[in-house]
Write a structure and sequence with these properties.
Blueprint lengths: L1 H20 L3 H10 L6 E3 L1 E4 L8 H14 L3 E7 L4 H9 L3 E3 H4 L2 E7 H6 L3 H9 L10 E5 L5 E4 H10 L6 H7 L3
Parallel strand pairs: 2-5, 3-5
Antiparallel strand pairs: 1-4, 3-6, 6-7
Helix pairs in contact: 1-2
Amino acid sequence: MNTQRIVIAAAVFASLCALGCGESKTEVTTAAVATPTVSAAVGYDLRRLRPRDGETLAAMFDRMHAQAVADGKQTAVLFSADWCEPCRKLDLELGNTHPAPDIGHVRIFELKEEEWEAATRMDEFAALRKRWYAPKDSYPVFIVLDADGKAREEMKEAIDRLGGEGVEPTVAMWFRGLRV
């Protein structure tokens, strides 16, 4: 945001200078066009799936996944819990912004254990999680899916892969490398 303001301020300053310095409008326009563009920062596209009467979790997920694919988005699913310290750290990252080309192409579906437990629907939560990740009681589970809803890469695999490539293993770097 600040970089955009600087670019706009520079263009305004150049325009004002042109009026007082005798430059033509054409020269000012050319100078403004030559200014490097800055990619807008966006927040993560995060959608929390909460229990709803009359709709199973599997049906809700399948519906929302199909919509994300129709919107041209890659999808990721995140299973987390409030009591989980790594989940809380991940929540902090998911509150950040990054350049749109890095993260804007991914829609994240988050499921919090406590919400499904309180609705006594943990069986649905566990069944959906088992589609992609069999071990129980391990959090967070964060998986990027393909257009068919199959696991493409799990976060722990991404951390190992990125580290092996000498890339800082962050969510934004993970998503950047998964563009289709």
